[in-house]
Amino acid sequence: xxxxxxxxxxxxxxxxxxxxxxxxxxxxxxxxxxxxxxxxxxxxxxxxxxxxxxxxxxxxxxxxxxxxxxxxxxxxxxxxxxxxxxxxxxxxxxxxxxxxxxxxxxxxxxxxxxxxxxxxxxxxxxxxxxxxxxxxxxxxxxxxxxxxxxxxxxxxxxxxxxxxxxxxxxxxxxxxxxxxxxxxxxxxxxxxxxxxxxxxxxxxxxxxxxxxxxxxxxxxxxxxxxxxxxxxxxxxxxxxxxxxxxxxxxxxxxxxxxxxxxxxxxxxxxxxxxxxxxxxxxxxxxxxxxxxxxxxxxxxxxxxxxxxxxxxxxxxxxxxxxxxxxxxxxxxxxxxxxxxxxxxxxxxxxxxxxxxxxxxxxxxxxxxxxxxxxxxxxxxxxxxxxxxxxxxxxxxxxxxxxxxxxxxxxxxxxxxxxxxxxxxxxxxxxxxxxxxxxxxxxxxxxxxxxxxxxxxxxxxxxxxxxxxxxxxxxxxxxxxxxxxxxxxxxx
Length: 491
Ligand code: BES
Ligand code: ZN
Ligand code: ZN
What we know:
Elements: E1 9-11, E2 21-26, H1 40-44, E3 55-58, E4 63-67, H2 76-91, E5 97-102, H3 112-127, E6 145-150, H4 156-181, H5 189-203, E7 206-210, H6 212-218, H7 221-227, E8 235-241, E9 249-260, H8 280-294, E10 300-310, E11 322-324, E12 330-332, H9 340-355, E13 359-364, H10 369-374, E14 379-383, H11 386-398, E15 403-405, E16 423-424, H12 433-442, E17 451-455, E18 461-462, E19 472-473, H13 478-489
Parallel strand pairs: 1-6, 2-4, 2-5, 5-6, 9-10, 9-13, 12-16, 13-17, 14-15
Antiparallel strand pairs: 3-4, 7-8, 8-10, 11-12, 14-17, 18-19
Helix pairs in contact: 2-3, 3-4, 4-8, 5-8, 7-9, 8-13, 9-12, 11-13
The structure holds ligand BES and zinc ion (2 copies).
């Protein structure tokens, strides 16, 4: 599976000849630490205060100090972002070895395994370069290597387990970022077929690809209508990971618009190029199942994505047109730019009917409104089941993928009634755009299936770096679904 870019290598044996830099993780207020005595001047001058994410490189002593903030506030979210920043820093140094010593103070809030997982996944995300199609200025650096050593009281096996999880998950996060970064002329619905096949092969997953003739036969007119104006062919792809002994099934569903021009309800030109990212939900979905399978989590996971391209053309669906969805509902398409819900509607009802999952979660860059509400720091989660939301919130705390809950009260659905059909695809009006989109989707979820919709339009990519986060596609959702699958496998 191609993901491009440099990767780091890891070992837990103390190979002193192999490293050039020592990396120290430091809590604020630790200026009395004898090991760090050499840096008293920096402490005194206030150059290094060990604030979270603060990195201080001392070339003379070949030492990198990384601030972790207050010891009792070691939150996964914050340290993850901090290691992403460190990884980014290391990517700018030329192919060297680094030594990380894990002392026991680092593991008072987090287990050694979780800490190693956060360090490795963060480093990998930050180390990964995103200029995938550049031919000039491409780094030809050797890949760096990291050596972990641990204080005696920390079990090496726990650290090894954390490293392995970090490598597997980060590989899939970077995999999702790689395809997200590819523009629409390089990555089409057919690209999703190729990528999904690679993931299936690597992890021995069952894969089913639905081409247009099959979608027509099934009556998946939501997916088909959206792709009508494009010369690309719509696809639905299903991957199935069924480990022996698993008792529950989690279905994960992704929106895979490899480009969303808005169709006849065309978008303004300004940021339209960003709509190559409208496939980030599907990218995270297929890569999450890859990561979950490689970790051998004991739960059946079915991943299903709808892949299409939304373009204006003589054949394109027009505002006012009515189609019949897979579940039989008739839909008046008042705005062809509200296309993600048409694609997801068919996939949600197909999976509800054929798989009958115990839990169903979809990821979609569905509405600009979620960016107005939450910016780029959290995705909105909306659900018909409070237990599932609680588990998602728990998974969110275990990863750097933050969620915030919005309500799905019935009243929000009132404006989705159409004069001519069962439903219209926009509520009109200005308020609660993310919620009305979710209310639309709710019509396509099988009865009694615990379902959550996660609107990732704000978190899937970022224009600007901020805090400790870098710009570009984030791979949001991969870590969240990995933790969610792990949580649900315990129930
Ligand atoms: N893909 C967009 C949502 C989007 C917009 C994601 C901006 C990221 C940044 C989606 O298909 C869309 O266009 N939604 C419309 C819905 C509206 C017409 C009801 C929107 O959000 O404007
Ligand atoms: Zn759209
Ligand atoms: Zn879209």
